[in-house]
Structure formats: structure tokens, C-alpha cells
What we know:
Elements: H1 9-38, H2 52-59, E1 67-69, H3 75-80, H4 86-94, E2 133-134, H5 145-160, E3 178-183, H6 190-202, E4 206-211, E5 215-216, E6 219-220, H7 230-233, E7 247-252, H8 256-273, E8 277-282, H9 302-310, H10 313-323, H11 329-370, H12 379-391, H13 397-410, H14 419-441, E9 468-470, H15 471-485, E10 489-493, H16 509-513, E11 518-520, H17 525-537, E12 541-545, H18 553-562, H19 566-569, E13 579-584, H20 597-601, E14 608-610, H21 615-625, E15 632-637, E16 644-646, E17 662-665, E18 670-674, H22 678-690, E19 696-700, E20 703-705, H23 712-720, E21 723-726, H24 734-745, E22 757-759, H25 769-774
Parallel strand pairs: 1-2, 1-3, 3-4, 4-8, 7-8, 10-11, 10-12, 12-13, 13-15, 14-15, 18-19, 18-21, 21-22
Antiparallel strand pairs: 5-6, 9-16, 14-20, 17-19
Helix pairs in contact: 1-4, 1-10, 1-11, 2-8, 4-11, 5-6, 5-17, 12-13, 13-14, 15-21, 17-18
Bound molecules: thiamine diphosphate and magnesium ion.
Amino acid sequence: xxxxxxMNFDDFKNQVIADYKLANISRELSILGRKEALMGRAKFxxxxxxxEIAQIALAKVFQNGDFRSGYYRDQTLMMAIGEFTAEEFxxxxxxxxxxxxxxxxxxxxxxxxxxxxxxxxxxNWKDLTKQKNSSPDxxxxxxxxxxxxxxxxxxxxxxxxxxxxxxxxxxxxxxEVAFGTIGDASTSEGHFFETINAAGVLQVPMAISxxxxxxxxxxxxxxxxxxxxxxxxxxxxxxxxxTNGYKIFKGKGWDYPGLCQMYEEGIKICREQHIPVLFHxxxxxxxxxxxxxxxxERYKSAERLQWEIDxxxxxxxxxxxxxxxxxxxxxxxxxxxxxxxxxxxxxxxALDKYLNPIKKEREELxxxxxxxxxxxxxxxxxxxLMSELSRTTFxxxxxxxxTVKKILRYICQTCDSKKPLKENLLSWKxxxxxxxxKRYNSFLYCESAKSALKVSEVKPIFNESSPLVNxxxxxxxxxxxxxxxxxxxxxxxxxxxxxxxxxxxLEGLQAKxxxxxxxxxxxxxxxxxGQGIGLALRGLRPIAEIQYFDYLLYGLQTLSDDLxxxxxxxxxxxxxxxxxxxxGHRLVGIWHSGSPLSMVINSIRGMYVCVPxxxxxxxxxxxxxxxxxxxxxxxxxxNAYRLKEKVPLNLGEFKIPLGVPEIIEEGTDITxxxxxxxxxxxxDAVEQLKEFKISCELIDVQTxxxxxxxxxxxxxxxKTGKVLFFDEDVPGGATAYMMQKVVEGQGAFYYLDTExxxxxxxxxxxxxxxxxxxxxxxxxxxxxIY
Length: 786
Ligand SMILES: Cc1ncc(C[n+]2csc(CCOP(=O)(O)OP(=O)(O)O)c2C)c(N)n1
Ligand SMILES: [Mg+2]
């Protein structure tokens, strides 16, 4: 910390003292937090001890409008920017689900995972330029990196895209920095390197701090990092006079004045010139070890443990304060004592706020039970259950509910005197269930008026003279309208920009809308997804293109852990309505382009999945999704781009509803349920079967998530009594998913007069070529069917 000209000594001293106090409060929180977890009041605890000072230095350059994408060590940073309190620290630890007490995560994820709220209660954007922002943390190490790229890129787009400069809820001339934090060991992940390279190419205001404490749990740097130094390793990324690249800084985790100066210098360059910066903060410590899962005495040497004590950043800061005569031993002692007290009070308050509502619910429940008594032998059981429940010292809501369920089992069906008890408990159970659903299970999808499920259908309109064109032209002309309609719409991917995508669905549009909005990227599917997330978190509407469905797997971790859970894990506090556009289906070998649908749909609950059979339907889905706040995946049918489709008169306007299957062909003998490219194959089969007087009802489900929300398939089965689920996924894959939804979920079992069947790909891998796709590896189960 330097004293600049505008500051007198008292101001300077007050700041230093306030920083020292915050560091101590934060440390006391970690110490108390660990105790709480070890005493069983929290399931787990992970804390930011040993990282306090660098985070305080960073916070000084964190301005309104900036964004953080970090990890579980950042409690001090979050407190220093004023977005996290000591009470919230404990609310997270206990898993308090009340947004008033725990506004970042509402108890949905483990402690020290931070987030600010970008949306108001009605789901509308707050003015993000007037607050300090943190994107919501996830646990997978380096999982915060891909979205960091997008958060930083948003500043560049806002600075360079003139039409967006009115959008002052997200940016003031692109001056915002995206701050990333990551542990030294997590830099071993591919996500880190992919992000580093992409930001170097893009030259965006991204500032990564690596908190280097020398360990990833028990594994030291020598097993993690070449040359044991991430800054040495990344030297080739350093910007030279006539190249792009990074500014790389090194600091020591205990060097308060040095760190303050370093951040000031580095962030000025980053913010003004949009040059990415890497701060390698070495010599950090972990006074309490990695987490409450273990103790670091098991794997750190005595010398290392002693070094960590000697280089404790707070002790070092204290020594520095005394050495430059900013304060006295006495004053610092009393600050340390005050910090202990503040942490203790915060813990007690947070514990009360967490437990009191649960205790109140328990009290009310016990009153309901005891107000209805009779003299039956089973009363002893009930009394025992009541006494067990009332004695629990650290009650949980589930204790109440499971006690109610047990008591209900003890009430005889015929017991008149217990009738009110039974009725009261049943209604308590129902009320409790719906309250807890809101508490723990809400906001997986958008619940506001902008839910994709609330977008009304607008049918495509055709007339006699509607021309037949290649499907990709419908897509292109529809995108053209969307780009002129939504200034915040951007798209990017491999070959997306200059070529207009490998199938020409964006032909000519980069020339028309510019290379900021329609952009080529490197081959980096994971950060293409992350780019989309970061941009969407800052108010843009990204369509992130993954060239082929098979390669979505490179981005699947980020889709599953990050994008699909953003709304849920912030309990509606943030939204990222990213559209992932890809193309697939029709097996032509192991890759290019299969249909591993079950793998995908079963890992991205929280997103919608559209599987259009042609490009008109695909265009209709884009039109729907851009009216909504939900993230979604659209898989275009790869082999349909050059098939002829009629051009709708209302391009850009027609909207396909989600979760509403379409009956492609009416029939009476059997219901065939399929999607995507398989619709055309099924249609061929339907025609062939007509010759044999078999009448098929062919249903295109259109979206796999959500699935047939109005039970249209059930209605069809009521008529036909038979059902076949058909696709190209593996056995037990998406056909099994559809069968479960229909036979069990919709209750079709009761209307079937023969077993439900699936027809899908091999339990194998498909060989390349048309023949390779055709032949099976197993004997036919029904050799009499040809
Ligand atoms: C993808 C993934 N793999 C493994 C883990 C388990 N894990 C949690 S923290 C951690 C070590 C991280 O070390 P580092 O990045 O140096 O951060 P530090 O905890 O030292 O601050 C590991 C392996 C995880 N959370 N995510
Ligand atoms: Mg580490």
C-alpha cells in the first residue's frame, strides 16, 4: 500500500487498519467455521485462511460493474468488495436456504461458493454497472475459467459494438474487468490452459490471480506444474511490443504493500487497454489445511508447516505495520480481539437465524401431534417418536417430515379418535412438501414470464406460392432477421464467422453484421460454451456453436456443472440464457455425427434440449428461445441442410413451442415415437408398412427436455394400444428415457395391449459408411420380422 498524494497520513492509516481488521475477521471466521464443521453443525467446510492479504489488495481495484469468477478461497475478497458478510459466511456453512440470510446460494451448494444477485425478485436485470458482481462458483477445479473468458469478452463487445452502448445496465464503454481466481494446482486442468490461450488471442480485460500455496490437497507443485511455477511456464504468453499476449506479474502472498501496488499497476493496463493479466501470487499458506476433510499434518513436512507459520500473511502484515509505525502493538492486539468477537457474534446470529425457523416448525408439529390423543397401544410408539424429535439438539427439517411419516404408519385406518391427527398430519405433510419444494428445488428453469414454456406458439405460414429451398437457406434467412431484431445477439464458433458455418446457415451474415457479432473461434469447445455463459451473464444473447454434436462432449462438463445449474444454484439470482447450436444424428462412424442423446440429456437438467427434424423447426426453436430466459441446446439435423423445405412467410416470427410433440402421420395400429433425423426414416417405414395394411401413428417429440408436457403420446397409445420408441442412441439410451416418461410417467402401461418396444442403435460402435451403419452385431430377436 502506498500513500499517494491525495491521501493524508490519517486516511492512509485508517485504510491499513481497516484492512488489517478485515484480514483478522476473515481468519477468525475460518477458525470458527472449521470448528463448526468438526462439531457436526456443518457437513463440510473449506475456507480462505492464508489468502487474506492478496485478496484485500485485489479488492482495492475491483470496481462497480466488474465481475469475479473464482473459487472457494475467496471469502476475504468477497467481504472486501462488500458483497459478503460474516453472518453470510456461517449461513453458507449451515446451508441456510433463506435468501435473506444467504443471498448468494440459498444453501444450494457447499460453503464458500460465492455469487451476487444480478436479477431482481421478478427475474429482471438489476443495473450491474452499479454493483460489484460475482458469477456463481462451482466446485470442479478450474470450472470457473471458461465462463471467465466470456465475462471478459463482454467488455470488449460492449466497447466495440456501437449499437450496444446504450445498454448501460451491463457496461460503461467496456471498462469492466473480469477477475479470475484459481489455485495453483488447478492450473493443471485443460480448462485453465484453454482459457489462457483464448483470452490471449482475443485480448480481453481478464485478470487471473493464481493463489499459489504449493499444494492441491496433498499433492505438491512438483507433480502439478512444469518448472513448478505457473508464471515461468506461461512466459511464452507474455506480450511483446508487436504481439498480443499477457502481462504477467508475480507477488508474494504476505507482501501487503507490494501486492497493493502490483494490482493497481496491472489492472490499470487491463482495464484501459484490454490486455489480459496474470498475477502469480506465490508463498501463500493454508494455516488450517485444505478443508475439514483432513489435516495437512499428514502430508506436509515439519519444515513446511513451520514455514507456513513464519510466512502467515497476517503476521507478516502486522510486522510491516509496526515496522513503518502505522500502529502500535496495543492497538493491533485490540483489533485482533475485536475480530474474534465479531466472528463469534456472527456465528451465533447465523446459527439462530438458521435454526429458529426449523425449531418453530418442530414446535408447531409437536403441538399438532399432542393435541390429539387416544388410548391405543400404538400411542407408545408415537410418544417415543415425539420425544426423539423434541430432543434433537441440531434439528433438521427432514427430522420433522420423517417423524410425521412414521407416525402416520402407526395410526390405524379405523381409529376414529385419531382421525383428526391423521388428517392434520396429512395436511401438514402436503403443506410442508410444497414449502420445501420451493425452498430446495425451485428455479431449475426460469419461473418468470420469460420461461421458454410460456412463449406462445406462432405457426409457420405457407401459401400456394411458398418456394422450396435448401433447408439451410431457411435457417440463414431466419438468422438474418434475428440479428437485425436483437442487437444483443451474437454467435461464434469454429468456422462460424467468415465461412458462415460449415453448412452455410450463416452465409453472408458476418459481412452484414460485423465480426464482433458473428465470429470465428479457435477449436476450443469448452471455452466456446464458457464464452457463451460469461456473455449471457452480462446481458448479451449468445448462440454458441459447437460444430458437431459429437464434440459437445468437450464442453459437456461446463454445460452440466455450470450453465445448466446457474439459475438453480443462485435460486434465481442469475441467468444465462445461452443457446448452444449444434448439428448431429445419422450414424456415419463413431464421430461425425452420432446421437449420444441420453448421455447429454441426462447430464444437463436445467437446460432444454430441442431435436428438430428439419431446419424450419430448428429456426422456429431459435425464434422461441430468443424470447425466453432459459438456456437450451438445439441439435440441427445434419443431413437436412440440402433437403428442400418450403419457406415460411413469417420467417423470424413463427415459434415452435417446447414440450409439444407433433403428429406427423395419423394411424391406428401402432404409435411410433421418435425425433430429429429419425423422423424421416420412420416416415419411410410408415409408407412401406401401408402396403401391408399396418397403420402407424408417427409422433415427433420435437424436444427431449421438456418431454411431451401435455401427454399427447398417451392419447395416441389409448387409440393404438402399441408403442415403439425409435432413435439412434444406444439401447437403454434416449429410447429408454422416452419409454420411462410415457409408460411410467404418463401411465401408458394401462393402455398397452402388448409390451412397449425400443428400436435403437447397436450395443456397439457404428462402422463408417452406409453399410456400416446398417448391419447389427446381434442376432435378431424376432427372426420372422424382415
Ligand atoms: C475437477 C475436480 N477434481 C478434483 C477435485 C477435488 N479437489 C478439490 S480442491 C482440490 C485441490 C485444489 O488445489 P488448488 O487448485 O491448488 O487450490 P487450493 O485448495 O490449494 O487453494 C482438489 C483436487 C475437484 N473439486 N474438482
Ligand atoms: Mg493450492
